[in-house]
Design a protein that fits this description.
The complex is a heterodimer of chains A (140) and B (362). By secondary structure, chain A is of the alpha/beta class. Helix content of chain A is 49%, strand content 16%. Classes of the chains: A alpha/beta (140), B mainly beta (362).
């Protein structure tokens, strides 16, 4: 009986660690922050606010327009099509309100920026080697 | 005139250089955006909105917007715009290049407050600030009765604040104070050439508020502005005129596959002029949209109310990318607002017009 409970606990523990990674793989992207950040989890709503510049405290960077990882991120986090999301930022720019997060050219560029920026945040394709100085944040 | 305007534009354009130099010029801090819409328009009745029976491609709007980040919270923005207005008499007083926005803004970090000073885009209604950006509009232009020529920008200052209402959505409010120019053309009953003028209004104070509902894309807005015409003499002998008041109400529901928008405005200026429009559209195939709009304006003067203008439009727009849009639209207009004097006591005039346009933005 005790053995069964231990096995169940071990499976649950494994699941708890494996789930964010599995979710990220299913979504096609991983949200990353600087390793020094106190954040380990962020909700989709919080991530959306950060990338829409409605929340201060982070410096977000985006992926190139047309990239699959950007399309997956925009759909999952903002609940919009890439075209609708781009239209939102066009409206912000030409209404003189704000400009979108800077675009980086690749996953490596995003990671390099986040690594060098203590309050940096970005996202990369699932499975990308993050290396030192950057960590993934998961859903709470 | 053109030469003077050109040099003015160059001077204003180059004024960004010393500002940037003081902040140690860095190209990484400079962003350049722009848009262009080229139209081809033809009417089969009375001329209006610069469109006559003689089809024209002299119908265009383009702008370049330069934004320099002095710091993370301080920005300098200048927008240079050029327009071609077809047969619209205002083309005679339209500068070749117009610096229609020049402002400095400061964001108060963490407070949700933004202050702007200079020539700032007037925050009023859904379309004023983006009225010329073709990739964001379902038709060539924003509804003309609510967004006529003039009062696009305010020479003065504004203060914006946003409030996060968490699960109840968010609230945004902007207050502004300053003055603005209003270009207009009048058509003498004698049939003589139209008279164009630029009136100056001062002591303009107003505000715009938006409630963004928890449903993404659905928002409601209200706004108002009070302003006074500057007497045309320079001696101060003429008495100041009674202030004008304009009110706005807006509803906007924009989704990925459809939208519905409606706005109403009331201008109190001796005669009351009320105008509204309903605009709707749906995506019918991938990036192809069908758009419809009906806009109406009424005037009440000396106890009499009459229909000033009605413009009903149907169009298709195709946006293969977010940076390109192709449109074809057909309008049927009936009323008294044409490029010709029409006696409001007699039968209204009418015209149908078609616009083909291509827009791009980056």
């Amino acid at each position: 009986m005790i053995r069964m409970k231990l096995i169940a606990f071990a499976v649950a523990l494994l699941g708890a660690f494996a789930l964010p990674a599995a979710r990220a793989n299913a979504q096609g992207y991983v949200v990353v922050v600087n390793a020094a950040s106190s954040k380990t989890t962020l909700t989709n709503s919080e991530i959306s606010s950060i990338f829409m510049k409605k929340t201060s405290g982070f410096v977000a960077v985006d992926q190139p327009k047309g990239s699959p990882v950007r399309a997956a991120f925009v759909k999952a986090i903002h609940g919009k099509t890439p075209a609708a999301f781009d239209a939102f930022w066009q409206g912000q720019i030409f209404a003189g309100k704000d400009v979108p997060p800077a675009e980086k050219g690749s996953d490596a560029d995003v990671i390099a920026f986040v690594r060098a920026t203590p309050n940096g945040i970005g996202y990369v394709a699932a499975g990308t080697d993050l290396g030192a100085g950057v960590k993934a944040v998961s859903a709470p | 005139m053109r030469v003077k305007e050109f040099f003015t534009a160059v001077l204003i354009g180059t004024s960004i250089i010393p500002v940037a130099a003081n902040a140690q010029l860095s190209l990484e801090k400079l962003q350049i955006h722009g848009y262009l819409t080229q139209g081809y328009a033809d009417a089969n009745g009375l001329s209006l909105n610069g469109i006559s029976k003689h089809a024209t491609a002299d119908y265009r709007v383009a702008a370049l917007l330069f934004r320099y980040d002095l710091t993370a919270n301080d920005h300098f923005t200048i927008q240079l715009r050029s327009r071609r207005l077809g047969t619209n008499p205002l083309k005679s007083i339209e500068p070749a290049i117009n610096a229609n926005w020049i402002y400095y803004e400061h964001k108060f970090e963490g407070a949700g407050v933004v202050a702007k000073a200079g020539i700032i885009p007037a925050p009023r209604g859904i379309f004023n600030e983006i009225r010329s950006v073709g990739t964001l509009l379902p038709f060539y232009r924003a509804p003309t009765n609510l967004y006529p020529e003039g009062f696009e920008a305010v020479d003065g200052a504004s203060l914006y604040r946003s409030f996060n209402l968490k699960s109840a959505g968010s609230f945004e409010a902007t207050a502004y104070y300053g003055g603005f120019d209003n270009a207009s053309a009048t058509f003498p009953a004698t049939g003589a050439a139209p008279v164009t003028s630029i009136a100056r209004y001062e002591k303009a104070y107003g505000g715009q508020a938006w409630y963004n509902t928890p449903i993404s894309g659905v928002r409601f807005g209200v706004g108002g502005v009070k302003f006074t015409a500057r007497p045309s003499d320079t001696t101060g002998a003429l008495p100041e005129q009674k202030p004008f008041t304009r009110w706005y109400g807006s509803m906007d529901a924009t989704f990925d596959c459809a939208y519905l928008r409606s706005e109403y405005t009331l201008l109190s200026a001796g005669a009351n002029t009320g105008a509204y429009y309903v605009q709707t559209g749906a995506r019918i195939y991938k990036s192809l949209w069908i758009n419809a709009q009906n806009e109406i304006s009424d005037r009440r003067s000396a106890g009499r109310k009459y229909r000033l203008q009605r413009d009903a439009a149907l169009g298709l727009s195709f946006a293969p990318t977010s940076g390109v849009s192709l449109k074809v639209e057909r309008h049927e207009a009936r009323g008294y607002v044409f490029e010709k004097y029409l006696n409001p006591l007699k039968a209204p005039g009418k015209s149908g017009y078609t616009i083909l346009s291509v827009s791009t933005a980056f």
